[in-house]
Structures are given as C-alpha cells and as structure tokens.
Amino acid sequence: MSKHPLVVIAGGGPAGVGAAIGASGPGNDVLLIEQSGFFGGMGTAGLVQPWMAYKTGGKTITGGLFGKIVERLKLRGAFKDGGHLGMTHHCFDPEILKIILQEMLIESDVDFLLHTSITGVDIEDGNITGVHTWNKSGAGTIKGVIFIDATGDADLSYFSGVPCEKGRPQDGKMQPASLHFRVGGVDESRMPEREEMTRLYLKAKGEGRVSCPRENLLWFDTPRKGEIHFNTTRVINVDGTSGIDLTRAEIESRRQMEELTGFLKSDVPGFENCYLDVSGSTVGIRETRRIKGEYQLTADDIRSGKKFPDAVALGCYGIDIHLPDGKGTRQEHLKEGEYYSIPYRALLPSGINNLLVCGRCISSTHEANAAIRIQPTCYALGEAAGTAARLCIEKNQRPKNLDAELLRQELKKNGSIVD
Ligand SMILES: Cc1cc2nc3c(=O)[nH]c(=O)nc-3n(C[C@H](O)[C@H](O)[C@H](O)COP(=O)(O)OP(=O)(O)OC[C@H]3O[C@@H](n4cnc5c(N)ncnc54)[C@H](O)[C@@H]3O)c2cc1C
Fold first, then answer.
1. Atom of ligand 1 lying closest to residue 16 CA
2. pTM of this prediction?
3. Which residues line ligand 1 at a C-beta cut-off of 6 Å?
4. Residues 6 or more apart whose Cβ sits within 8 Å of residue 149
5. Domain 7-79+89-170+287-413 is of which CATH architecture?
6. pLDDT tens across 232-258, in order?
7. What's residue 3's pLDDT?
C-alpha cells in the first residue's frame, strides 16, 4: 500500500466494492477500508438474498461491474434466476461471492484493509484530510485526496458534519431489522405452496408458538438443493447506528430464528428433517442515515420513472417498506418495462468538498430509499461514485464541479447502463 492513497473508500459492501473498482486505474492509488473480514456487506455478512430485479421488460437495468460479477457467479455454478409474486429475483452463493469480490479487487490493483473501522475524520476548510481508523494494530489516520462514504450508515458523512436524516418523516422510525438464515435438509418436492406455509405460520402464531411480528413467512430458494432461505425474523424500533439497539436486535432475531426453525420442523411438510444451516454474521439493517445532498430522490421520482439528465444508475425495483411498526409490508411495484434513474447530484453531500456518497445512504427520502437500497443498484451507485472520484483526480477537480455528462460517458464505456 502506498503511503497516501488518492482515493479512500469507507465500507466494502456492494457500493464500496463498486466504488473501489470504479476508482481504480493506472497511477490511481485506491484504498478500500472494511470493518469485517471480507467484502459484500449485507449480501455476505448479513446473508441477504436474493438480488432483487435488475431486468425489466427485456431490458437489463444494471450492467457494468455488477454484470461482470453475475457472469463470474454463473461460471462457478453459484447463481440461479428465480421469482415469486410476479417479481424476478436472482439467488447467489454468498461464499463464492466473497471470493469473486476479493479476486476482482486484486485484479483491479485496489489496496484494502480488512478488520478496520473508520471512527472519525480530520477536516480543514471544508475538506476531509484524513480518516481515523482502528484495528488490531491500534488507532491510525489515513490521508487521501477524495473520500467515498460506502458505509451504508453514512458514517463518514456523519463524522464530517454532513446533514443526515433517519426514518419516516412523522416519527423518524426506521424499517425493522431482520436476521437472514437458511435451513438445509428440506425435501422440496413435499413443500406446500407459499400461501399454505403462511397459513401454517399464522396458525402457530395464533397458538402462541411463534412470536415473530411478521405477517407472513418470507422465503426464497438458493442455488443449493434442499436448502431454503428465510427473511422472516423481524425486530422493531432498532436504530442501526446505536450499539445498544444492535445488541438487542442480534439477541432477539437469533431467538426468533430458533423458534421459527422449530415451527418448520414440527408443522411444515418437507421440513421434518431440516436443520439450521447458516445465519448472517450480523443482523440485517435495512435503513439508517441518509445524507442530505445536492438533490434528494423522492417517491414521485421512483413512481413516475423519472429520467434525470445527470443519471448515473437505473433501478426497476419499486418502493418496498417493511413497516416500522412490525406488521405489514408496503410494496409499490413498477409495471414491467418501467424504470427510473438516479442523478449524480444525489451522491454529492452538502458541505464537504472532497466527499462522494454511494449505496443505501445516498440523498433520498425514506420512501425512495426503500427502492434504491437493493444490492444491484448499490453496486451501480458505487461504480458511479468511484468513476467520478477517478475523473476528479485526473482532472484535478472537486466532485461538485465534475461534468456529469463526462462521467456518464465514462460509465457507458465500462458497460454501465445509465439511459
Ligand atoms: C434484512 C434485509 C433484507 C434485504 N433484502 C434485500 C433483497 O432481498 N434483495 C436485495 O437486493 N437487497 C436487499 N436488501 C438491501 C441490501 O442488502 C442493502 O441495502 C445493500 O447491501 C446496501 O449496500 P451498501 O454497500 O450501501 O451497504 P452495506 O451492504 O451495508 O455495506 C456497507 C459496508 O460497510 C462496512 N462498514 C460500515 N461502517 C463502517 C465503518 N465505520 N468502518 C469500516 N467499514 C464499515 C460494513 O461492514 C459493510 O461491509 C436487504 C437488506 C436487509 C438488511
């Protein structure tokens, strides 16, 4: 690793990996800092599956780096198309994804530091000059020229004093937390239909044998035979930027997981011999801070399929809010063939000159965030932020002054889809 990287990226989830590879290029020293021991964020650490739709009406909406990751997963037999309730989705093997992401970062000559948390920043005249880090070697400071916040929680922006929002407008409550888990040993040929599984689940709830607040049993298949993936646990009133709340969410969601596994074994045909296979190494946090940036993406932008002149990513997934009160899910799907775009301005935070933001913490309302937060879109937003950082270094410019059309052309050259 060189002494002073030019581009420093906080967080190695979908957005951070996208940003690091987007920023990479000859002579551009890029450093990616991740607090866990591997890359992929919620998709690996949180075991969050499947990838929601990135194709609509025969058009692929997310290309670039994300498309290349899909190709590598397919080559390793670690990818499977699926769908339910009229929506397409895409299952992947998270263990293989971890390997593919590290392989692609190494090929792109990106430096990285794992097991390292960013704990603060130094700021001079509206510019971040360095980030404070902590790992087993102790506390440190890493300097850079352009910084990218891909922490999901907008940690870097928050430490820098960028204005942020949390939750729904009326009370600031956020979507519930959910621990994803998988059971193995399932005889899929005997599994009932979705509706029947939910009927059995609600019966067990009514009898007091299941205490999860969720209204139905949400499950997906995986690329592996006999394995079913559950996104059913639900813990409410969790602020994912509070250590105390995160601790409560871990404990309660693991309790729900065991209870649900017991219910599956005793009540659901095909699950009699199932066993708890694996769970996320962290509870899944859907929503925390959103930055206030040059443009705030709104629900109307999503619903109307708005196309911005400075679009840097597209999305076709609609508003999907797991209601903060615990029971109910509000879903507004777009019609087949409809999609929206996300403007470069939503990645530009107010107040700091040399910071870009990508992934789920971009400038968006509570509702719009519930659409753009899916992993394929976060990879694309990351690639856009990283590419912008590379162009800023090349042209010696601030992100806010970068010509968005130049950025769009550069993204297209690398296979990204922005129109
Ligand atoms: C329960 C749940 C269900 C979901 N369901 C789906 C689904 O079905 N399909 C879908 O496509 N998407 C789904 N999502 C959404 C999706 O997984 C996330 O929105 C997406 O992963 C966000 O990507 P990101 O890169 O912005 O953030 P993250 O994936 O959260 O990655 C952020 C990374 O930054 C690291 N980090 C954070 N803070 C620091 C710090 N201070 N220092 C160093 N590193 C740091 C984290 O360890 C992490 O690796 C779901 C999310 C949850 C929680």
1. 25
2. 0.98
3. 10-16, 33-36, 41-43, 45-46, 48, 50-52, 117-118, 150-153, 155, 178, 231, 284-286, 359-360, 373-375, 378
4. 10, 11, 155, 156, 157, 291, 349, 355, 356, 357, 358, 361
5. 3-Layer(bba) Sandwich (3.50)
6. 999 999 999 999 999 999 999 999 999
7. 57
